[in-house]
Amino acid sequence: MTEAKFAIVALTTALLAPQAIAAQIAPRVEAGALVTQQDGGLPVNNLRLAPGVSYERGGFSINARGAAWLSEQQQWQLADGSIRGMFTSPTVYGVRAEMISNASRAFSDQSLGDDQVDVQTRIHVLFKQRGGIWVGGGLARPWRVAVISSVDVTGGGAWTKLGNATMSGMLTNFSFTKVAPTLDSTNTAVSCGTAATRLPTPGASASAFALLEAAPPACSRQSRFSDAEASIHWEQGALEVNAQGGYRFGSSYDVTPDSRRWSAATATVWMSDRVALVAGGGRQPANVARGIPSRTYGTVGLTLAYWPMPKGVVPVATPKALLVKSFEVRPAAPGMQKIIIRVGGVETVDVMGDFSDWSPLTLVRHGRDLWELTVPLSPGQHQINVRVDGGLWVAPPGVPTMRDGFNGEVGILVVPNDK
Amino acid sequence: MSRHLSSLRAAVRLVGLVAVRAGAQTSDPLFKLDQTSRFVVDATIDSAKVAGLPWNFLILRAREGISKGADSRHIAAAVRARFASLKDARALFGNISDGELNAAAGLLEARGVRPEHLAPLKNQPRGRSIVSALTVLGDLVTKGIPSEEASSAIIKLWQGGAGDADFMGLYHNVESDILQGLNPGIALQNRMRESLGPSGKLLPRAGESETPSP
Question: Which contiguous run of DSSP H or E holds residue A415?
Answer without folding.
Answer: strand A409-415
